[in-house]
């Protein structure tokens, strides 16, 4: 019973058409997408962040944008339940690109771009498949809007690994002011984790955008607010036979939509956190109990606090399947007279999985590549580091003991197939 994983990237189309992504090496059961605002690696003006997911039957995406270098700030967000990836303009609140999943194919997947512009954007993806993944659900639910437990049902099975997201919005397919994005994760056994940025800059504001961010390694879902408690904050209570139950300690309005990706099967999972080292070199994380097939990282570029951090909003995500890697970063701050917003994208040709930058200087603060997947964890190689021990969240996914795992790389990374014996697992 194998687990198949592939981290890859491609460039979005500039005209409406279908786009077949091949070379994945297997038929995915679920694909998660990550997009920024450029098709060329490097740091650029404005802030763009988009992530989405699709199975054979359902999909969704969230996208935010924030304008750089203007006295009147513009923050834009959009969420959609029919497309799996999309983007919005930082200045006009227009939807600039959208694609639906047309099919999951024997060697990849096919997208149908229904909205495009002249910009070809860099899209990263994580594709998962194989018999070890027995059930997949991609969906949304409506928040009750009151503190306490809320059960989400209709998933169809008891999840092994859960991802959540939200923007604090009650509508689909309509770009709105205020940029918000969140990503949470939990496996029900280890601690859940979530980070979020909130950039509140409605068009026409007379002052630079007001920024805030929040991260907590015990939360499963968070939507940050400009100050004080998050607009929504929830921990995982349980993974249930037909879904999951969250406990909301903080919540604003009823009727807001949140999203999930749920997986079930013969999977080894770990959700956790660690701190960035303050010097270069190798950093090993152990205690997973298995050798990962894929690891995903995210951080809000700040030390652990569990409280709202004001006047700055940053968000970094990266991942690797041991062969290929992908990383992106976005950041914004009010600035003295004009907004400051930047983003970075990298297809991971050098294996970069974590990149932390400074939007005010466009300089890198820290950079890590994947050193190895190990018997009981993974090793990062920090090629650049500073004096800040930033908190980094991660999830690791592997196959059950003794089953084969395949990671099909792209480009110069090549590909591999390996059978992991029970000696690769701890306990």
Summarize the structure.
This protein is an all-beta fold and 427 residues long. The chain has no helices and 35 strands.
Would you give an account of this structure?
This protein is mainly beta. It has no helices and 35 strands. The protein has strands spanning 3-11, 18-21, 30-35, 42-45, 47-54, 59-66, 75-80, 85-88, 95-105, 108-115, 122-129, 133-142, 148-152, 161-169, 176-177, 179-186, 193-200, 210-216, 221-223, 232-240, 243-250, 257-265, 267-275, 281-285, 294-299, 309-310, 313-320, 325-333, 340-346, 352-358, 363-374, 377-384, 391-399, 404-407, 416-419. The strands form six sheets. The protein has a nine-stranded mixed β-sheet, with no helix packed on it. Strands 4-29-28-27-25-33-23 form a seven-stranded antiparallel β-sheet, with no helix packed on it. It has a seven-stranded antiparallel β-sheet with strand order 12-22-14-16-17-18-26, with no helix packed on it. A hairpin with a 6-residue loop joins strand 8 (85-88) and strand 9 (95-105). It starts with a strand and ends in an 8-residue tail after the last strand. Residues 202-206 and 409-427 have low confidence and may be disordered.
What class, by secondary structure content? mainly beta
The total count of helices amounts to 0
As residue ranges, the low-confidence spans are: 202-206, 409-427
**Quaternary class:** single chain
Could you give the count of β-strands? 35
Taking the alpha carbons of the first and last residues, their distance comes to 20 Å
Average pLDDT rating: 85
Query: Which sheet architecture does the biggest sheet show?
Result: 9 strands, mixed
Share of helical residues: under 10%
């Amino acid at each position: 019973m194998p687990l198949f994983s592939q981290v890859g990237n491609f460039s979005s189309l500039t005209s409406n058409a279908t786009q077949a992504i091949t070379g994945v090496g297997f038929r995915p059961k679920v694909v998660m997408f990550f997009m920024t605002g450029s098709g060329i690696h490097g740091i650029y003006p404005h802030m763009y962040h988009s992530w989405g997911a699709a199975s054979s039957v359902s999909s969704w995406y969230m996208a935010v944008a924030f304008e750089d270098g203007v006295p009147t700030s513009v923050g834009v967000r959009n969420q959609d339940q029919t497309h799996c990836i999309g983007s919005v303009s930082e200045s006009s609140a227009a939807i600039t690109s959208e694609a639906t999943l047309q099919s999951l194919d024997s060697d990849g997947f096919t997208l149908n771009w229904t909205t495009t512009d002249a910009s070809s954007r860099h899209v990263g993806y994580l594709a998962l498949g194989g018999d070890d993944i027995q059930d997949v659900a991609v969906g949304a639910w409506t928040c009750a809007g009151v503190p306490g437990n809320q059960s989400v049902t209709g998933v169809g099975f008891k999840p092994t690994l859960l991802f959540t997201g939200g923007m604090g919005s009650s509508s689909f397919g309509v770009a709105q002011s205020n940029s918000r994005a969140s990503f949470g994760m939990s496996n029900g056994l280890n601690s859940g984790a979530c980070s979020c940025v909130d950039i509140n800059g409605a068009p026409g504001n007379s002052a630079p955008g007001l920024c805030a961010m929040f991260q907590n390694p015990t939360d499963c879902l968070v939507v940050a607010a400009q100050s004080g408690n998050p607009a929504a904050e929830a921990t995982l209570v349980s993974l249930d036979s037909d879904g999951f139950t969250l406990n909301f300690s903080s919540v604003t309005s009823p009727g807001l939509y949140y999203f999930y990706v749920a997986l079930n099967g013969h999977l080894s999972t770990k959700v956790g956190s660690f701190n960035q080292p303050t010097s270069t070199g190798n950093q090993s994380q152990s205690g997973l109990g298995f050798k990962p097939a894929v690891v995903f990282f995210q951080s809000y570029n700040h030390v652990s606090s569990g409280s709202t951090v004001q006047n700055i909003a940053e968000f970094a995500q990266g991942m690797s399947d041991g062969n290929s890697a992908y990383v992106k970063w976005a950041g914004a701050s009010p600035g003295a007279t004009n907004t400051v917003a930047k983003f970075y994208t990298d297809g991971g040709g050098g294996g970069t999985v974590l990149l932390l930058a400074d939007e005010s200087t466009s300089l890198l603060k820290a950079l890590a590549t994947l050193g190895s997947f190990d018997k009981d964890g993974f090793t990062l190689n920090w090629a650049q580091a500073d004096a800040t021990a930033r908190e980094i969240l991660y999830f690791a996914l592997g196959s059950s003991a003794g089953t084969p795992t395949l990671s099909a790389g792209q480009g110069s990374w090549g590909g591999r197939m390996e059978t992991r014996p029970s000696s690769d697992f701890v306990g």
